[in-house]
Amino acid sequence: MAIIVNLDVMMAKRKISLNELSERVNITPANLSILKTGKAKAIRFSTLEAICKELDCQPGDILEWTDAGD
Amino acid sequence: MKKEPNQNRIIILSVVAVFVYIFMVANSFSSGWDAFKMGYRSAYEEWGHTPQIAETPGRFYFLSMKAREGYIQFPDKIYNNRTESFYPARSSCLVVALPKGTEIPTEAKYFDWLMSFLIIISLFLYIITPVIFILLIHSLYTGNVFDKDSTSYTRYLGIILLLVYGCIQGVSYASYRMHQSLFSFEEYRHVFSFRENYLLMMGVAVLLTSEILRRGLIIKEEQDLTV
């Protein structure tokens, strides 16, 4: 996939676990895990906003584009 | 389990579909009952059993025919008891009994075997059709509309309908060629026509439905993977 999700990197920097983050942003751990492992097909702006607010970062810190192709 | 809003409709339509299927099979069986009885008696005697009736003509053939000169020709006559007179007539379907001991051309035997083979395949398809239909209805009833099983079952149903259609045309064509090799009439010619064309329409419609369900499945998967 051309968009890489670096959520695990940000979570490690902020020292927050998956379950804790899921509780704070009101998303199920399963969905957050889908996002973290790069299996998500799409992300809502509301979700992205909640994660960025909780991790105190920019969307570009979590999402990265590469020219890897599909 | 809480019932979905249209589960009752699914049940009702499924029951109607089952009854329609039973009616279709029974109707084709009853319309071919005479032919079945004649074929059975013919085979019974061929197996070496004593004929039940003193004079039995032999094997029966159901011919589809057309007058050689078209719709304007009436080669035959038929007597009307009401008016006590003969009227011009022509036949479109005849049952001909081939006398016992008549030599059958090799070409006719080949087409006869081909017909038997295709009929056996058709019977098998007729039997598995309701099984797949029940599996599909069960899948829909449990709420799995956009599901790999539902799309697969729908696709199988569409393919089976097209295969049945193909088998029916194959039987019809083999029958036509067999009759051509056995019979030739002065004023009639044999006719081949496509039969049960509604099966072709149904097969294509069901395959189209399966593709729509598959598209819905892709959209659902994307939706499920939207965080």
How does this structure look, described?
The complex is a heterodimer of chains A (70) and B (227). By secondary structure, chain A is mainly alpha-helical. Chain A has helices at 7-14, 18-25, 29-36, 45-55, 59-62, and strands at residues 3-5, 63-65. Chain B has 227 residues and is α+β, with helices and mostly antiparallel strands. Chain B contains five helices and five strands. In chain B, helix 1 runs antiparallel to helix 3. The longest helix of chain B is centred in the middle third of the chain and has 36 residues, at 106-141. Chain B starts with 6 loop residues before the first helix and ends with a helix. In chain B, 12% of the residues are buried. Classes of the chains: A mainly alpha (70), B alpha+beta (227).
Task: Briefly characterize the structure.
The complex is a heterodimer of chains A (70) and B (227). With 70 residues, chain A is mainly α. Helix content of chain A is 56%, strand content 9%.
Overall spatial form of chain B: elongated
| Cα Rg of chain B | 24 Å
Low-confidence region ranges of chain A: none
Overall pLDDT score of chain A: 91
Rounded to the nearest angstrom, the distance between the terminal CA atoms of chain A is 5 Å
Topology, number of strands of chain A:
2
Supply the helix-strand structural class of chain A. mainly alpha
Number of helices of chain A: 5
Instruction: Report, as a whole number of angstroms, the end-to-end distance of chain B.
Output: 28 Å
Which term fits the overall shape of chain A? Answer: globular
Q: Helix share of residues of chain A? A: 55-70%
- Sheet with most strands: strand arrangement of chain A: 1-2
How big a fraction of the residues of chain B is strand? Answer: 5-15%
Category from helices, strands and their pairing of chain B? alpha+beta
